[in-house]
Amino acid sequence: MTILELQLENQLLTLLNQEIIASGDANIDKCAFSFSKEWDGFVKTAVFYQNKNNVQYAVLGMDDTCMIPAPAMARAGRMYIGVFGIKDTAIFTSTLVTIDIHEGAVSSENISMEPTDDVFLAIIAQYQRIVELMSQYEKTAEQFNIQMAEQNKILETLNAFDVVELKKQLDMIENRMIDYAELADKIMSREVIIRDVPIKFVNKVCHIENKLITENSLCDVYFDEFSYETASTVLILPVSYDGYLELTSSADIIDELTANILVRRE
User: Fold this and answer.
1) What is the pLDDT of residues 195-251, one digit of tens each?
2) Residues 213-226, buried b or exposed e (16+ Cβ, 10 A)?
3) If phi over 0 gives left and psi between -120 and 50 gives alpha, with beta otherwise, what is residue 110?
4) d(C-alpha 249, C-alpha 89), whole Å
5) I want to staple 223 with a disulfide (CB 3.0 to 4.6 A). Which of 21, 122, 156, 227 is the partner?
6) pTM, to two decimals
7) What is the signed CA dihedral for 88, 90, 91, 94, rounded to 10 degrees?
């Protein structure tokens, strides 16, 4: 196992040790970072790539370490390492360092080279899975109510409600499923994800119309991996209004970007 030690002084990233990493390693080589006080309060993510079209991300743990993603070192060559941090609307980036990946016993022919999702999309996907799981409870509750009604008819025919304990257990299960459905309703009504939104700035302003957005909504904009490189070079501020979201950029952006928008409503 190799541990790369890296130091960040403001935005200058320095590799403190030179270790041997062979292509084909997976879930064994790590990076350990140390940060100057400028990084306090930022959620930090490491960036790894040999090819800019296949960038890999790893969110740092509480100890400021992370595993090096296997696809970033699946083949021999020069690997680039960097870090960025996010705090509210602020984005803090580092310079890049490089390390040579030596030819190993296995390489890209033996390892899946499917690119990983952008770190922000991965976080959103995880959140969406939770919401969808709660939605399944709602669907389960609806189906359960249908089955309960059918079962009740059979029990009434058999005079089975004379068995009081059985009735209590069935009522308890039914109430629990209803509670799950109500909780799912609350979660889905408060937060929603608007996916794959085209972002086109005109005079540094972009309007995104959607009836789910209200003046009191809190909106977070997560750019996909192809748009992030452009979006990260400027400051983009979202302001919500009834029926639309207004994005303001600190500089002109010519290209059309793509983003997912997380809308949190009261």
Assistant:
1) 899 999 999 999 999 988 988 888 889 988 888 888 888 899 999 999 999 999 999
2) beeebebebbbbbe
3) alpha
4) 12
5) 227
6) 0.45
7) -120
